[in-house]
Every structure is written in C-alpha cells, then in structure tokens.
Design brief:
Largest sheet: 10 strands, mixed
Distance between the termini: 60 Å
Oligomer: single chain
Order of helices and strands: HEHEHEHEHEHEHEHEEHHEH
Shape: globular
Radius of gyration: 22 Å
Number of strands: 10
Structural class: alpha/beta
Helix content: 40-55%
Amino acid sequence: MFNRRSATLSVFALACSLFTVASQAQEYPNRAIKIIVPFAPGAASDTTTRFLAARLADRLKQPVVVENRPGAGAALGGTALKQAAADGYTLGNLVSAQAVQPWLVKDAPFDIRKDFTPLTLMYSGPMVLTVASDFPAKNLTELVAYAKANPGKLFAGTIGIGSATHLATEMLKQMTGTSITPAPFKDAVDLHRSVASGQVGFSLDSYASPKPLVDGGRLRVLAVTTKERMSSLPNVPAIAETVPGFDIASWVGLGAPQGLPVAIQERLSTELRAIMQSPEWKQLMVNNGVESGGGTPQDFGRRISGDYEKFGKIIQTAGIKMEP
C-alpha cells in the first residue's frame, strides 16, 4: 500500500514538473531579455551580439538589450552571467578566453564547462601567420626550417601571456619541435608594425588585425591556424597541411546560467541559429574575417570542453605559470 502510494505521488510530482517546464516555455518570453557582452562597445563580439539581439527581439516580440561588462579578460562578464537567474532573461557571451583563465588564474570565478548552459557558437576566429614581405621564408615549411637552423633567434609577436596569439605560438613550437621565442606586445597595432619592419619574425593573430598591412603589401600571410582553409583566403594553406593535427582559433558564442530549462534552451538556440542562416549575418562574418558558427547547444558544449583541455595542455607543456 505504501509503495503504491509512493509511486503514485512520484508520478504526480513528475507530471507537475513537466507541466511547469512546458508552461515556462509557452509563456517565454514575456519581458525584456538582457545579453551580457564581456568586452567594451565596438569590439567584434559587441557588434555581432547587437546584430543578433536586434533580430532576436523581432522574432521573440520582446526587447533584447545588450549590457557591456568589460574587464579582467572577460571574467567580469562571465561572473555576472553565472550569478544571474537561469530563467532565459539573462544571456551572455561565452568566449575562448574564459576557457583559458582557470589554467592561468588561481581561484577563477567560474568554470566555463560547468557554470553555463550553451546555446550556440556565434563564430570562430581563425588566426593567420604573417611575416614581413621580404622575410626569407616563403611558406610554413621554410619558416620551420629557418627556426630550426636558428634556435632561439626567431621571435614571434604575441598579445599578452595566455592570449590566443600566445597559445597558438606555443602550440606551433610544441608541434614542430622548434625553439621560437614569444615576444609580448601591448596591442596588435605595435605587434604587426614590428613584424612588418622585421623587428620580430612573425605573428599569429586574427586576420582583421594585420589585414591593412597585408593589403598594403608590407605583410604576407603564410598560413591559417584552423584545420580547414579560410573561406576568405582560399589560396592560403592551413598549418595542418604541413603540421597534421594543428587547429586553434578564438571563438565567441552565446550561453545562459547553468540550470536553464531545456525547453527555453532549445527555443533560444533555434531562433539564434535561424538568424545566423541569413545572408546579412554571413556577410557580416566575411567582413569580420571570421567563420560563422550556428551549431546546436551540444556542438557548442563539445567545443568548450575540447578547447578547455587543449588550452590546458598547451599551457602546462609550455610551463606558463599561474597568476596568484
């Protein structure tokens, strides 16, 4: 009698729970939605998120506003998103830099794999390897040979310890067995000018940064860092064509706090992916020199977990020290 009654109550509780989730999805959204961007206004993630926000508002028939929370290498924005209610009314960018922080910062404020609900990857930013127009190496094979013939004398410009540019450089060192020396710069402008003038040998950075100097004939693009060639640079080989398995890029996606109801996750993901199929979005990606995302929440979750492990391995192998 007791077991039968307990079973009946359990079924009733489950039914109530399912009804509640279904009701949430049907009622959602009934007020404004906020999207947290962990960078300053005008950054690529900001402009692309605002593009999505405007069109998402049209599809959901509710205002969608962007709130910038820059600082601490995207940690401030990530912390604000983690602390928000998991009700679908606060979304935010999840970015590759947040997958690096736990490996570099003691007591990081969140774990990107566990504290968020992924929605979709917005875009990934392949990096390009650029050298001065008169650099002796004409391709990646020659660059690696040059590095091996001149151990410790080939400098690669990067933008800060633990940045995507730094990790890509360390990955190239590790996978080619060379002793390339990273040279940190404060910003991309000085970095690429230094490459063009021959002060450092090469750089790995998103294409938008060196593009003006490439267009002006002062830099040459030798390779791209993703396993596939860039659609905007179809004649430039991928590093993986010479160094099998090489694949690294920065990325930006959208997520919500952990615990978001599945029905709301699926609704948001579906709407966002529909927007990202538009010709306007695809043209925006081409203009920004990045590759469009648009996969499922599961796809994005696998990307987050995979890159978390990849970045950690690079950092540990390189012996990069954690900040206190």
